[in-house]
Amino acid sequence: MKLVLFSGTHPRHLFVNRELLNFFEDILVVIMQREELLPQPPKNISEIDKSLFIKHFKNRDIVEQKTYGNLNYKQVFKDQKKIYVKPEQLNSSYLADEIEEFDADIAFIFGVDLILDPVISKLPKNKINLHLGLSPWYKGAATLFWPFYFLQPQFAGFTFHQITKNPDEGEIIHQSIPSLKLGDTIHDVGAKCVKQAKNDLMVLMNKFKTEKNFVGKKQTTSGRVWRRKDFDVSHLRLIYDYYNDDIVDQFLNGFLSQEKPFLFSCLNEN
């Protein structure tokens, strides 16, 4: 079987996507360059917010290095057929032509921008995206951050879904949330989501190789699409200054809402 794999360059993307390399006979990898892992703080913010911004992304880097190691896309994909693109080249006619010629049985997407025409129309029927966030509650960007900001750490999870031209709106294939433990920080939970998604991906791909299809569930509510510009550095004050990054503990100790998400998985279907 043939796979077209869309991958970002961050270690979390490589940690998941490399698992597919020994799973298919023929793979074309489309690698999209991502932003720096340690971004610079925005200009014209207070010193307090600047300190929190640096702390937030430094903490993320520490957790991710410990979890994923120093993965490099050149090494991970060294033996694969690959096309390297910048974000503005992702939906180019050139890439569409290459994908049409490759004629894959399935596409898997994790870590790239929204795929649109002319590329999306050249992808196979099953084009599965891994979204780090629970659709429809948290679609779009920073969707493992917002559950913490709204004091719902139990809504930090992931969604495998078919892609459409709208962000995270396709049929849901599988959703899950990690087990929360006392002492988990916001970035610990993010890393747990990625590790569990990697394991679940292998089960999903075994299912596909047997059944050649997925039975999904249409999203019946619109939810909300979070944009990058919705995030303001001052939002970090709630996470770190007010709660000292112990929102998981607050939830587990019963001090926050105990509402649970209703999740769907084709793995539970007969």
**Binned strand content:** 15-25%
How many H/I helices? 8
Distance between the termini: 24 Å
As residue ranges, the low-confidence spans are none
Main sheet: which strands, in order across?
3-2-1-4-5-7-8
Q: What is the chain-wise order of helices and strands?
A: EHEHHEHEEEHEEHEHH
- Counting DSSP E segments of at least 2 residues, the number of strands comes to 9
- The SS-based structural class is alpha/beta
Provide the gyration radius in Å: 19 Å
Shape: globular
Query: On the 0-100 scale, what is the average pLDDT?
Result: 96
Helix content: 25-40%
Give the biggest sheet.
7 strands, mixed
Write the SSE topology.
Blueprint: E1 2-8, H1 11-17, E2 26-32, H2 47-68, H3 73-76, E3 81-85, H4 93-102, E4 106-110, E5 127-131, E6 139-140, H5 146-149, E7 158-162, E8 172-176, H6 186-211, E9 225-226, H7 236-242, H8 247-252
Parallel strand pairs: 1-2, 1-4, 2-3, 4-5, 6-9
Antiparallel strand pairs: 5-7, 7-8
